[in-house]
Amino acid sequence: MIVKNEERFLADALRSVTGVVDEICVVDTGSTDGTVAIAESFGARLKRVEWRDDFAWARNQAITMATHRWIFMLDADERLAESSHDGVRAIGSTSAAGRGKWIMCRNLSDEIKGSGAMTNALVRIFPNDPRIRYRNPIHEFVARDGAEGGLPSDKTAIEIIHHGYLTEVVRDREKAERNLRLSRSAVEREPDDPFHHYNFGMALLLAGDREGAAAALAQTRQMTRQTPRGFRAHALAALADLYNERDTDSGAAIETITECLTVAPNYSTAHFTHGKILAKRGEFHAARDAFGRAIAAGEHDAEQFVVDNEVAIWKAHSEIGATLMHEKRYADALKWFELASAARPMAAPLLVNRAKCHEQLGDLGSAATLYRAAFDAFKDEASAIEWVNFLLRAGRENEALDAIEACLACVSPGYQCVFLGTAALVHLRAGRESEAAEALERALAALHPAEARQTLMALAERMGAPDLVKMLPASVPARAPGLRIAYNPEQ
Questions:
Q1: Residues near 271 by Cβ (< 8 Å), separated by ≥ 6?
Q2: Stated pTM of the model
Q3: Minimal CB count within 10 Å: which of 220, 266, 331, 373?
Q4: In 3D, which of 61, 62, 70 has the Cα closest to residue 100?
């Protein structure tokens, strides 16, 4: 292992291999927390080095400490799956020839609340051989004598679970910035290596630079046309998805995903992306066929370099439901959402889309239960907006007032202003002028007065409520001194 300030994760990682491995060799690259003490409490042998912005170098330092014939590399934010214990033990009892072992790394994700995992294949078990070492400063891999293609290896059913791409972890560790820095440096140092361009594209995507990511992945596509690499299919699928986000790139998206499916015809992620492209074009029947192929391709997920596990489990089912909603076939859509929910009952889009179908079908009780369940589960702005809007549409205004109060702490200041302005309107229409004035005062306090007044004017216009406009103050108070003015008060 290589570690730095891993006291949050390290004990669980080491516990997951207790009784499975013969020795624990840890390289610490500058911890200032309790990491070292935790490692020592598990009997680990420890080596301290300075961090060099090079994961391969650090991993190779750990390898030199090993005294047994097989190496198993694990990160502190990973866990060896309990179901894989016997598989690792079995490898440890065999002779180490010149080949490594592929394992599946299940990367947990909370990008979609209530669900999420993407798996990638890694060679993490390999012979303890001085000619076998890691290469590349980031997204490093083992190779014999520095070969470009990596160590020849055999597939296994061994799985590790990775927590490092959960949103909180990425933010706290500034992982996006680190990955971007290291991958950019690798591209500058070795511009002819397509793997560096692929990693740079994925780092840009993680950092939110979608235009930059598309450019880097397009470069990867070009560089791997004549010499295909294992990451080519995922690069093409990600590039097609980025093209699909642009209103003007539907043709480029179709061309790219078609190329991807030629390279990897059993790739569920690619079929799923194809379906999304077709759905955006309004070709709903063809999109459903593509999503169906994504579900069928799930049986080949273990063969892929990188795959979104959730596609064949529920995402494709959900997208079929979404296309049926576009066609107002709500009963049919609900069947697909419920099928997906059997696998992921708390996936946020499924809760909301099931609620919308029930609402359209006139089952307001079931709709209310699901909208409320989504908010109770996630307490975020999206679920708050859906819940409050449903109650208003259903004419359940007193419940909406209670919901607004429950939601205020979960939404941005802009939506606090909108919610409280809506509460003022509900009170006003019920003849409760004092309560309306109080809600309006709170709405005005949620934002800078000028911005709040603009927001409330827009709300009143949309809701057809001139009486609400009359209650707004005619003038805008001066902004407190020392605060930056980010608007033109004359507009």
A1: 261, 290, 291, 293, 294, 297, 311, 316
A2: 0.85
A3: 331
A4: 70
